[in-house]
Every structure is written in structure tokens, then in C-alpha cells.
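Whiteboard transcription, Tuesday session. T.W. wrote the C-alpha cells on the left side:
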């Protein structure tokens, strides 16, 4: 049985972890990105301006982590958006569409009772199949046992 590759992904261009976790972890060929708040990486504080500015900053932070992993938003296959108030859904959706412009990832969005640092919105659970050889098409499977007959192919459109 072969062992999985496991590597921590980190960048100073996104907020440092506020607990015992990594910004992102590469496991085999899939990158798991921790939840991102609308925090300024330099100050560690939530950005002012409300839910729209927080959503922009959270997604900008995610983008910096993706860059550190040699990926971008087109490589993301799953996200979860957590909202302090479901009434902010349309505002966050408008911001989200600025970062994910085509080939949208699967997504869940829901209201939660509370979030760390009391933001209005956060993104979490981003899953990114990383292309180890960007020139070639690579089959990407998160769980080979449950998807034996399926082959999903992801590629960079360069």
C-alpha cells in the first residue's frame, strides 16, 4: 500500500491561522483549504465595510492560498459559504461571482449561529484538485474506492 503525499501549504499573503490548523493541506493530489474570514493578512483584523467587503477579503485570501499551491479559482471543485445572516446571501453571491466566473464549483451556503471573530460571511471547505503536470490532463478522484468507474478530468485553460 502506497502512502499519501501530505504537505502543508502556507502563505504570508493570507491571514495566519487563528488556531491549531493549517491554511491549506495537500493530500495526494487534492488541496483542502481552511475557512477564510474577511481578515486583513497584515493586521489580522476583519476589514471594515460590512458583508460585501468581508466576502471580497475572504475570497482574496483564498486566492492567495490557491496561488501558493500553484492553482487558481478555476481549479476549485467544492466550496461552502457560511453566513451570519442568510439575508446577506445575495450580496455574498454577487461578490462570489467576481471570483468564480465560469465552471462553477459545487457549493453549499447556509446560515450559522456564530463564526470566529464575528464576521458576517466566511468561505470554507474549498477542495482543489491540484494539477501536478499542468500541460497534461490528469484524472482526479477524491476517493478512488467509491468512484471506481468514474474519471473526472480537470485542466488549466491557458
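and on the right, the sequence the group agreed on:
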Amino acid at each position: 500500500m502506497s502512502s499519501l503525499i501530505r504537505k502543508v501549504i502556507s502563505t504570508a499573503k493570507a491571514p495566519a491561522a487563528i488556531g491549531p490548523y493549517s491554511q491549506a493541506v495537500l493530500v495526494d493530489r487534492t488541496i483542502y483549504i481552511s475557512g477564510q474570514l474577511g481578515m486583513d493578512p497584515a493586521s489580522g483584523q476583519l476589514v471594515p465595510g460590512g458583508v460585501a467587503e468581508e466576502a471580497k477579503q475572504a475570497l482574496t485570501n483564498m486566492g492567495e492560498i490557491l496561488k501558493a499551491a500553484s492553482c487558481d479559482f478555476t481549479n476549485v471543485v467544492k466550496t461552502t459559504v457560511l453566513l451570519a445572516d442568510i439575508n446577506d446571501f445575495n450580496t455574498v453571491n454577487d461578490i462570489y461571482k467576481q471570483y468564480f466566473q465560469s465552471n462553477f464549483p459545487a457549493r453549499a451556503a447556509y446560515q450559522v449561529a456564530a463564526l470566529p471573530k464575528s464576521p458576517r460571511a466566511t468561505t470554507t471547505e474549498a477542495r482543489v484538485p491540484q494539477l501536478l503536470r499542468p500541460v497534461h490532463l490528469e484524472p482526479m478522484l477524491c476517493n478512488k474506492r467509491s468512484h471506481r468507474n468514474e474519471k473526472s478530468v480537470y485542466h488549466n485553460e491557458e
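Someone added at the bottom: The helical segments are 51-68, 89-99.
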